[in-house]
Amino acid sequence: MVTTETISEYKYLRANKKFPSVWCAGCGAGIVMGAIIRAIDRLGISKDDVTVVSGIGCTARMPVYMDFNTLHTTHGRALAFATGIKLAKPGMKVIVVMGDGDALAIGGNHFIHTARRNMDLVAIVANNSVYGMTGGQFSPTTPTGDLGTTTPYGNIEQDIDTCKLAETAGATFVARTTAYHVFELERFILQALKHEGFSMIEVLSPCPTEYGRRNKLDTPVELIEHLRDITVPVGKEVPPGKFSRGILVNRKQPGYIRRYAELVDSVGGTWRY
Ligand code: SF4
């Protein structure tokens, strides 16, 4: 019998209070959550030194299940709340989990400015190309031509490249992977947790219920294999319609917390850092 002691993830879950989860069978949210937990476990820090923040959506349910300091906030505002936590507790590892709509539509403004500030946060965007929780509306990352409940004849808009946006706005660690490449995801999260400044990891994640079944990817297996196949490792030529997978940006640049501490110091103030 599996006990809470034998599986390390159980140590980090509100196993007896919040399960079963709301996620559909085949959803990528649980895969992403598992990778976050294992990366934190590998980092070897206390649960009390981690805060997980989210906004609204299927991905945003994650902090409900995770036994860290957690904050489930309003739609699109998770990065703003997380910024406040980081400034109040600069020693805390603050991880923000968002879906594509939460991060890039409702929260697009916060996404840009948190990256621009090089705020010391780890942002994980689980991109499933759809608003899953509210019933399959198209999102800023729905590929052109794809179907959703609000695009029954195909999306006519250009989709956002999450990683290019993060890089352009100033993020100093940017990576992309998929829920299929779960060990790679775990490795990237661990690296992001050690990075100074703003880290953003985009995870192409399956939503079989609201995206896959409308877009001729009828089973969770077909969908996750599709996500695997639309990525190519960094350094290889990227054909149209596909994405680079790997670490795309990794720059050393003082994070906001260090710069703020230096500013306070320079004017004779005191601040815990
Ligand atoms: Fe996951 Fe989609 Fe179901 Fe939401 S609707 S729980 S994103 S599969």
Shape: globular
| Helix-strand category | alpha/beta
What are the distinct ligands in this entry? Answer: iron/sulfur cluster
Mean pLDDT: 95
Which sequence of strands runs across the widest sheet? Answer: 2-1-3-4-6-5-8-7
Q: What is the N-to-C order of secondary-structure elements (H for helix, E for strand)?
A: HEHEHEHHEHEHEHEEH
Strand content: 15-25%
- The separation of the N and C termini measures 45 Å
Please tally the helical runs, counting DSSP H or I stretches of 4 or more residues.
Answer: 9
Number of β-strand runs:
8
Helix percentage range: 25-40%
Uncertain segments: 1-6
Describe the 3D structure.
The chain has helices at residues 29-43, 62-65, 78-88, 100-106, 108-116, 162-169, 182-194, 220-229, 256-266; strands at residues 50-54, 69-72, 93-99, 122-127, 173-178, 199-204, 231-233, 243-250. With 273 residues, it is an alpha/beta fold. Residues 1-6 have low confidence and may be disordered. It binds iron/sulfur cluster. Iron/sulfur cluster is lined by residues 23-24, 27, 29, 58, 128, 132-133, 207-210.
Strand and helix map with partners:
Elements: H1 29-43, E1 50-54, H2 62-65, E2 69-72, H3 78-88, E3 93-99, H4 100-106, H5 108-116, E4 122-127, H6 162-169, E5 173-178, H7 182-194, E6 199-204, H8 220-229, E7 231-233, E8 243-250, H9 256-266
Parallel strand pairs: 1-2, 1-3, 3-4, 4-6, 5-6, 7-8
Antiparallel strand pairs: 5-8
This protein binds iron/sulfur cluster.
Q: Quick recap of the structure?
A:
This protein has 273 residues and is an alpha/beta fold.
